[in-house]
Amino acid sequence: MDYIHVKDMEFYGYHGVLAAETAIGQRFRVSITLAVDLHQAGETDELEYTVNYAEVYMICKEIVEGEPYKLIEAVAEQIATRILATYEGRVKGLRVEMIKPDPPIPGHYREVSVELTRGEFQ
Length: 122
Description:
Belongs to the DHNA family. This protein is of the alpha+beta class. About 30% of the residues lie in helices and about 35% in strands. Helix 3 (about 55-65) runs antiparallel to helix 4 (about 70-85). The longest helix is centred in the middle third of the chain and has 15 residues, at about 70-85.
């Protein structure tokens, strides 16, 4: 299996359980790994045989900067669902990591994140 990685995309959204999160908003980072057969794209040098990662970026941007969700799990699920539907048959599987670098919880840590995997991965 071949993979396309789009790492550390950064967006500003209004997701969270606390009122302050939905009022003020915060930064979110998203990393995506797509399982795709890239053999034909490599041989032909044609975009039609791969996944346009500029479009993947825009899907992530629309979802993260769009409708607020309480849970980052829900945001990650929306991203996975949309990418799989958009590239049905081409994307065999994907991994979405949704990162909340500054959650409003006390303590010292770098970030919190969820990671979900859908479809085929080796």
